[in-house]
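Readers outside the structure-tokenisation community will struggle with the description of the input data as it stands. Showing the layout once, in full, would remove most of the difficulty. For illustration, here is how one protein appears when written out as sequence plus structure tokens:
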Amino acid sequence: MQYSGFKVFLEGLRGNKGWTPAWREPDPKSEYDVIIIGAGGHGLSTAYYLTKVFGVKNVAVLEKGWLGSGNIGRNTTIIRSNYMLPGNELFYEFSLKLWEGLEQDFNYNAMISQRSILNLFHSDSQRDVFVRRANAMILAGADAELADEEQLRRELPFLDFYNARFPIKGGLYQRRGGTVRHDAVAWGYARGADRNGVDIIQNCEVTGFHIENGICKGVQTIKGAIGGKKVAVCVAGSSGRVMAMAGMRLPIESHVLQAFVSEGLKPTLPGVITFGAGHFYVSQSDKGGLVFGGDLDGYNSYAQRGNLPVVEDVAEGGMAIMPMIGRARLLRSWGGIMDMSMDGSPFIDKTDIKGLYFNGGWCYGGFKATPASGYCYAHLLAKDEPHPVATEMRLDRFKRGHLIDEKGQGNQPNLH
């Protein structure tokens, strides 16, 4: 079914009786050309581009729970490409360009809103760092704009410009950044992949891999064995557990990241704002709630829940830059399992096992990378060579000493 404004109007007149399911509920076949493990944003986008762009038709996506039950539905919905290092900047700029045409591409309203993202800075040295980042962004083809204190006072008068401890001296804007409705991204990619013939099989946990003589020939699931010429793992925070079934140990740790939303408020924030002297980022949803987050919980876990000290820490970060947030009531919170790599950057690569591929280690960059991750992973699966913007995202880069250390914090994933 093709969605349109006319279709909505027509169905309203007909009592909305003509809508059909957005995707099928098929039983698994005995064999596929490509099996994708994980029906999150990255897995679904991989299936979509694999069928639409690269012409691979016999594809299945296996999901342990329900479609979109992982991090794709547990994030703060921010999109941006304000990275600095070559291994990341070109990739995330490619992703932002895909976001800009995504709704027309898969015929689904994902509520993409390029309302801007602003990174505040609070010292002269931090300003110099952001100037360097802005120049790197512009050289890579992205947009960047420096704002001084006077401009921010005019545009964002609710910020605390009188805080002696964290004086706001300016900020780095990326006007093309913004937010997207995260659930709609999963639904849109699922619908598009299904229309291209992909079998999306929910409640189908993978329990093992079928590996013979160093070649992956399929997977074992709770619904039986499924053969596959290529198997693509794409399970975010569960990467370590899934790849362990293939005998692999990854340079990844799983941490909990909490996010929060306040009660609905009148329009207050024009875009996304981040605190430069601490870890706090906030935007306002279309429903009026302030959506915000901060640091990892600081311990390894596979639980999709957090702890109270981080709630306090994140609230303190918000109060430091805009004290009026203290009058808002917290409506709800949630936790996502972050697959934190040792240099803060992701992997899209083949493994040493022929026919087995891996996508993971996204740290804080997973949601904003969804279109480019799927496109580049599909490129790798179809052509057995990395996409030009993902050539640095190799699994062996630590062995080779070619880290993409975006934040310069080395092998401490709890700090990324």
About this structure: The first strand starts at residue 31 and ends at 37. Residues 124-139 form the longest helix (16 residues).
